[in-house]
Amino acid sequence: MDVLNPIFTFVFSLEFAVRVLGQGLIFTQGAYLKSGWNRIDTVVLVFAWLEELRLPGMEEGGLSKILRMGRAMKPLRLMKRNKSMRHLIDALLGTLRPLLYVIIFLLFTLVIFSCIAQGLFGGRLFKCTDPALAYPNGKTECSGLWYTDTGIMMPSAWANPYFFDFDSFLSSGLSLFQISCFNYVRYECSLFLDAYVLLLLPKERMR
Hints:
Layout: H1 4-23, H2 36-53, H3 62-72, H4 76-81, H5 83-94, H6 96-121, E1 127-128, E2 145-147, E3 153-155, E4 158-159, H7 169-180, H8 185-194
Antiparallel strand pairs: 1-4, 2-3
Helix pairs in contact: 1-2, 2-3, 6-7
């Protein structure tokens, strides 16, 4: 590879020079850099020359990682020569704009329902750490100390024991994202039905 790399770099550089002389670089009608595949070739060629020149300091620190990334981009030149692969990549890139519209619509929907969920369930998933308290007790009665089954004395606290909540816009959006991915749907829906009144313990009506 140490022998072949300079040869291929020289051949690709000669190809680049001939095509630029024949088509122009940027401003002509069929300029070389107006094609996305040609721009990829140019980037690969630049990395190849950086690797061949081996300037002082290029093999150390973050610059060496950049050179390794350039080596990983070399197979992209093969895609340009393979017509079916090139058509496949062009088709995938052509779907990015419609996909972006779908993502924007999903984010817009998530923002709306995050605001609704925050208004409906914000602060209603809190409960007392003392398991002896139950509905209709609430935050006012959540005080003092209680003992665990092993005899350890613990202070009572009014807190959210779950890994999700709707107390802020961000946490509401993350919780809805979990539901949209069908994670914990049944578990969370039962908690929402139990969340009866703000500052009161959940009323267990569905299990």
